[in-house]
Design goal:
Eight copies of one chain form a homooctamer.
Chain A: H1 3-14, H2 20-29, E1 32-34, E2 39-41, H3 42-48, E3 52-55, H4 61-72, E4 78-81, H5 85-94, E5 99-101, E6 106-109, E7 120-125, H6 131-143, E8 147-151, H7 159-163, H8 166-170, E9 174-179, H9 185-192, E10 197-201, H10 213-220, E11 227-229, H11 235-247
Parallel strand pairs in A: 3-4, 7-8, 7-9, 9-10, 10-11
Antiparallel strand pairs in A: 1-2, 4-6, 5-6
Helix pairs in contact in A: 4-5, 6-11
């Protein structure tokens, strides 16, 4: 289901083929297709013009496949995050054209490759271990129609590594910064650029990192004013918010 | 100091009136005017085209006044957040045209009223007590050149109050949501709009709100994908990030 | 053992067949049948007219089976929560008529199907992953003699999904709301209905959800006055309290 | 505004004196009377048949007085919790018939003394210092039309004090238990009665009580199945929930 | 090595067979027998007249066996706590007369069965799941020469179960109380007896029990003055302290 | 009221002057004298042979005075902890012979100076700032009939200061150790002595001491087996438990 | 008392003027001069050749003055940290030559100005508000005989401010970095220099800074290997450790 | 790559064989060799003269081997921490001369055995279980060119075990102390020596040790002024900082 279905609905009303009451009723029922275990909500896609999203974590391969297949029928892009290879195998059997982005742990179905974003989204990671989270942001931003550039392993303890990319980074229209441990990178990047910075704390670290809490607190207390924060390891959320900012017209 | 000073610098180099070395040296020293207790950093204004900002909390009235006066000389807008009336009185003696926004606890000097934002920024608060934080966001967004609309006391326990404003809210290009207690409002708003939502947890509440921690955790775990979060009570940060998003060209 | 046994006891005293002292002594010893590893307490059933309950978690299949069989002999309903299939297999060998409710992870023996509840108990879950906790509440309420209606996957980020069921929900006499992540749903539901809402935080989420802590704090700080809270993932407790409220005469 | 106003509205529609559109419009606007700093929401009263509630904490005396006066005009009961004497003085000047319940820190206007509750609500406190929280529950339950009995200073370290009141307590239809420190009392009471127990952790204690956190955690982990919990020091919430349970018909 | 070895040392000095310097030197070296991975400290046994203790957790079976064998040579009692069956098997091969106490997860070598305790130590557990911790306390107290009586599954939600044993419990000279979940039992027991109560929080529970934190905080805030607390699941520590109290002469 | 009153009661029954029923009734009512704001519980004194205790914190001077006067009438010792000078002044007006122990912040009425303790209780403090807590333990132990010796300012960073008192300390029958900051002293003392050590964490410290949490956790994790712990700053509890241990016969 | 007193002691033994036993005895008693409320420990000064230190916080002016005066008699440097003006006034009356360092809140008596440090200690602060903590480190390092250079207000959000001082900072032999909020500065500095960095989290910040906890966790998780950390706001400790490193020979 | 490569670069510029621009360009590109998943940063080695370090945790055997081999080519020492046997096997296939230090879980390639440290580094562990962390510190210090002495199993509950090594410990130029549970050892050691103490909290313990949090807090609050702290289980960091201190010239 896409915007066209709704335009059609209103056209039918205009042409007198449908009473307003009936139209309202149809609208109310259309977007809820009960799969038994989850109400697939097409309204969300409708409202935002965004791809359909599935959080695969905690779902069985067959559940992921069933939801994915149903969503794929509406003709837009579909993204399943936190997916493992078994879940991908199950989806692949039912849906043609899907791809598994291993680093990002994402299943992707890209039917629409329209570029919605106006500029480049830069995705930066502090360490090698933060890459899976960064890649989740990359995949999300790409499927939402953005040009993405990434800069990995440029943590603050070797500030020259970050500064070496300064010129490229400052050209971005939005910046995503993924960092675990002390989570200091967003503050430094925030000071280098004049655009919104989405900070993603990662659970990388040990001991007093408390599974990402240290990085999270650090980012929330950033002394750079252009930083906002999403949940620990939430690369998807960062990619999603960045895409909304980049497409804003 | 503004962009012109730097253009002039480079022009002098081009014309051979200044050696590159001397220019570099002048550039390095220019932006740091040592006031004895704080290095006023004009580079930040330069980079972002943003007003000068002072966090008044923890500074004496005379310190605030001294920094404010110095910044005011550069001709742009100046905003002092978390300011009390004594600090305002001290500033008023030294700087003409300043205004005290009581609800927002902000001292404002608006010399440049250019509209930079492309759309409207909506600022929403859950309860009456969250208004000071919301107002700090409003003032920040206004001085950064945005049109702002606010919707106060529309918390989730009376969802019809929020829905009554739904049409107006969905027209905004960025939405700021301030809420204490359980901090549920950003998730609901996030589901209603298709634009970025900046969530601001407030310290309003008691007992297990732990001074805003409950609201902060709630917002970080939002099931709406378009929500990012700033520090507890950080209305300024939300206004700042929203302004960057709204002006993005 | 049931209320009749005690009435009999008193009758025997009235008829002079038993001295008061002997009766007291018998009463004191009756309810404690020592199984070696747990004192089975029939007093609890007696007092509340409720089914016997076993928390299976942390017990071996044979322990669960032994306690279940003993309780089943007293003729009332028996409910074993947090049970796995192995525990069910062990019980099934010893007790006839037991049933395994897989989603709810519960072993059920329903001998008495009297309807004790005066109205309907509504059980609402925010997401698909919260269903096991919600189902535990459903099973508990059902075995305690209530009519239950459930509404799943109606989280706050798509508020229209909840509102679509508003009419049905407002007819309930008690409402149970299960939600993980930000735990915002009970506040919204609490604002829609005029009856008691039992909120159950679930451990669904990641990162800063801290295994349900975020949802728990959110619910404790609910701005809706009709919300009270039970432990994380405690679907049983919610079903139990709701049943007491619904039967209150 | 009360139910009659709405009945009138529908009557006017039935009689053709008002178009449905106009009626909808009037309904939408009626309940929101903008006081400038808070939207007074009469819908809530309408829905629940409950008194109007004001949380006085964090409001100025004149704010409390203004909201109180406005609410009082609708003819129902009004309750301002967490109120101090200055706030009471301000209210008293504007509203006739108000009363200050010092122990409970509550301002009360009781115009309607109808008994809505079907049974007795028992309010129990563990220690002398928990009494203000318990009294807030008492006042709330009373103004909502309930008969209330209280049992104070019956903490678990002297279990005979509680047991001495056992007979009276077991006659209640709902029980509220307020306790600080280790918060053990609700579990013991929960085991004595067969009705819902609302547990209120209080911030009484020192050191590792962490301002009520110890009591809160204790109550959430209660081994008694009939216990649900409200926020620390939230006597009002407990009284409100208990009233809903007691009136349920 | 026991007290006799040291008496012999001093005797030799008295008789002139050893210079004081040489004696001091021998004393200094005697108690440290370096096993390569741990310094076995016989001084401890010497000082307290207590059995040798090994914390088996985190040690390999062969490490446990080696330390156990070495300690066993000194002729006193030896206790290895938190031991699994593999560790027991390894010990059994090297040391005669050892016994595995399965419930308590303890390896015991009791060569000396002298009764050191003056009275009875009562060990109480709230639930069935707390028994392993309680049994660790029982084994510890027994090997340290005490008469122990236990009372299991007498939690506070069925207070009559505890009261049924009141007479027996009040005869004890020290009481150990093990409880998870809300940890309320020590306060109730503390109010029933006039002797020291050692409270042991257990990690039994789920959700907001936070692995025993709730019980720990509850016990630290006990309103009974005769309660002191040891670490979560530390049955050994409780048994040890109780033994010292019971033997105090 | 003391043991004599109860003996008299039973004597009257024996002599036929009172029916058993009447005696039971009188016993049930005697110990509860309702002062309006607190039930004074003489049973506690009766059971334990201990002085009456008042926690003055959070009570008004007149409340403290009223309770103190009532308790004083029963002829035993009375101790009011956490008392300030105003509370003492109020008590002094009503009760003769009371004394204010300033360092310990305690009001003391010692009518019975019987020595109940069999040995010496040693009270040790790590730093100068821990002395008020230590003194509360001292006063409590003294009024409960013990000989007390104290050793102050002997923290672990200057271990020779502690070792200088080793001989005296090892003669004690129970040891109380008060320490803030890292709370390491109980472990060291626990290793030096063979008797029970009661550890009292104090709130002394700053930053990451989190008001005594660091010391509390340190003590709970003590590697010395003879250490048990009471609440932060709970000098009274430590003195109470130590007295019970010391008097145990 | 200084090293000379002890040399004298041994000299007297060598010359036979004192028996070894008497010398040992004198040594044992000398360093402990009991002031009634604190044992002044000259051993510490003796061992480390360091100034005497007083933590003034929580002490009365007269207590600070008494300890200061006593320590001053031994002829070395004396430093009272966390001192207010009243405490300084009290000290000034008793000790000549003392100085109050207002920013650092320190009372200083510098009798010995020997340079012990081999290189320069750099003290860096992130923001203006961190200066008091940084100054405490400066004063401590100076009185311990070091050359100190400071660099204030060079936080990470304007990384060019820090880099402008890079050359000077890399010349230091030890670096102290004070930062609140996200505490990111030590990681960046740690990456720039090849010497030990002592990180001092400050309590500057609000909301999720949790009084310095965010900065503390950030620093403990620093990705720079040369960073170690002291307590929140512990400028003194940082200065002390840095001095030991700088003097190491 | 080592210092010689850079000297060569500058020499070529001096001799006119390279333009400054070309030299700058070469310098910029040289240290970043992109391995695809991590930027190997030779600058760090260059700056500090330190071995190359790899954190093996979370990396696959082939990733560790690839990075190790690349780093090994530059001719200096290489250390891979937190490595398991599989990772070692992978490295061994590619690099000659590597060694696996099992206790320390470290892969070591020592090509340069120059002694950089001026004195001895003492590494102390409280218990047997802390040894792996201590050994990580030992290996790190050794490969960085230091003489190391270790003292294991000398925890505070048997203070004589520590004091027995006092003389040896006080000869060290830096001391590293590893301790879990209550983490008290650094304070005691800090009081015994006059040199910097690096405290390493370990995750050894159970219950309220909260995986090293108790030890961490204890160490941060140490009453000994010469203690600074690194992350939980961070033996590497302690060895690194100690090496920098020991080599400082």
């Amino acid at each position: 289901m896409n915007a066209k279905s709704i335009q059609l609905l209103f056209e039918q009303v205009r042409q007198g083929k449908l009473t307003p009451d009936a139209a309202v009723d149809r609208l109310r029922h259309l977007p809820f297709e009960d799969l038994g275990f989850a109400k697939v909500d097409h309204h969300r896609a409708l409202r935002a013009g965004m791809p359909e999203i599935i959080l695969s974590q905690g779902k069985t391969p067959s559940q992921v496949a069933a939801i994915f297949a149903r969503l794929a029928k509406h003709g837009g892009n579909v993204l399943a995050t936190r997916a493992n290879e078994k879940q991908f195998a199950a989806v692949k059997k039912q849906v043609r054209g899907v791809e598994y982005r291993e680093l990002a742990r994402a299943i992707v179905l890209q039917k629409d490759a329209t570029r919605f974003g106006k500029g480049v989204i830069a995705v930066i990671s502090a360490g090698t271990s933060d890459i899976p989270v960064a890649e989740e942001a990359v995949v999300t931003a790409e499927i939402m129609g953005n040009e993405v550039e990434h800069f990995y392993d440029v943590g603050v303890a070797g500030i020259h590594r970050l500064l070496a990319h300064r010129e490229a980074i400052t050209k971005a229209r939005v910046v995503i910064v993924c960092a675990g441990m002390e989570g200091a990178l967003p503050s430094v990047v925030g000071g280098l650029v004049g655009v919104p910075v989405i900070a993603v704390p990662t659970s990388i670290g040990y001991g007093a990192s408390f599974n990402g809490l240290a990085a999270l607190l650090g980012m929330l207390n950033s002394c750079a004013s252009n930083v906002s924060v999403v949940n620990i390891d939430n690369g998807f959320g960062a990619g999603y918010v960045a895409s909304l900012i980049n497409r804003s017209t």
